[in-house]
Amino acid sequence: MPRRRIPPSMGSKSKGDKLEKRRKSAIAELRYSGIEIDPASSHERVLRACYERYGRTLNLKPAASKSHLLGYYSAVSRWKGALKRGKLKPPSPKKAKPDDEINPNAFYRSYEWRQLRYSILLKYGRRCMCCGQTPAHGVTMHVDHIKSLRKNWDLRLDADNLQVLCEVCNHGKGNSDETDWRNA
Ligand SMILES: [Zn+2]
């Protein structure tokens, strides 16, 4: 039986094949350690997740070459080995953001706010304290910080700093007006 010559290109794996193998095994590793990641994730996503796992930041150039990507994967496997041998400290858990950091978006999503907001609507009813409109007029009700949230962050959960306004009045009032419409 005549032996077929194997073309040299098939003997050694191409960089593309190597990369794909690295990507798949990194995804398997991540999933094994409880990190959910889509099997179709790009190299960049996979590498970013791996780097985060070892407490590193990935600064990937926009058009990273295959050699670059392989280099990044090599770093990941070096850390994995070092961690196993006890020569790499596991990344310290991310520090929680201090509670008093001004972050209105996160604040408005918090359960504490939503609970307080709801209690204010229950207390005063769904009627704008400024113009008297209600949802029946097609307006959206807001619970407004009388003294603005940004400038008075410590009052963000103070029930005495809250009033019911419609969206239009609240928008018009803005951040600098501090009119208390509750007894007006
Ligand atoms: Zn209004």
Please supply descriptive tags for the structure shown above:
single chain, 184 residues, mainly alpha, two-stranded antiparallel sheet, 7 helices, elongated, binds zinc ion
Describe this entry's structure for a reader:
The protein has seven helices and two strands; from the N terminus they run H-H-H-H-H-H-E-E-H. The chain has 184 residues and is mainly alpha-helical. The chain folds into two domains: 14-84, no CATH class; 104-173, no CATH class. A two-stranded antiparallel ribbon has the order 1-2. Helix 2 packs across helix 3 (43-53), helix 2 packs parallel to helix 4 (66-84) and helix 3 (43-53) runs parallel beside helix 4 (66-84). The longest helix has 19 residues, at 66-84. The termini are far apart. The relative contact order is 0.08. Residues 128, 130-131, 133, 165-166, 168-169 line the site of zinc ion (ZN). Zinc ion binds at residues 128, 130-131, 133, 165-166, 168-169.
What's the helix and strand layout?
Layout: H1 8-11, H2 15-32, H3 43-53, H4 66-84, H5 104-109, H6 111-124, E1 141-145, E2 162-166, H7 167-173
Antiparallel strand pairs: 1-2
Helix pairs in contact: 2-3, 2-4, 3-4
The site of zinc ion has 8 residues, from strand 2 and helix 7.
